[in-house]
Input
Amino acid sequence: MNGLYALKPWYAARLGGPRAALARRGVPPDTPIAAGVLSAAGAGAALALLPAPLAAAPVVSLLAARLAFAGLAPLWLPAVVAAATGRAVPVLVVVAVGSALTALFRPGWLWRELGEGQ
Output
């Protein structure tokens, strides 16, 4: 694996502690999903509203947060689309589709994971 996608397994492995802490505290799976959707929306807003040099740091930070909260879409995907097109709209579409898919599939995965931890 090349690029940022190669970091995904390492990044996901580091999230075991926070996930366990959320499970111990009884945080419902919908909470991290909502945080992931908000992070994706924030990244899209930063791309749409800020000039390219100023958008870089918030977009990378918010997409990293989105990956931490949701984890299904590879972090590099929106960045590649933005670089290839030079436009924010395709990136917003990718983020929106990824967020929608995450919202559909992640609750079941989290409920199973939380159930195994008890």
Notes: The mean pLDDT is 75. The chain has one domain: 3-116. Residues 3-116 form one domain.
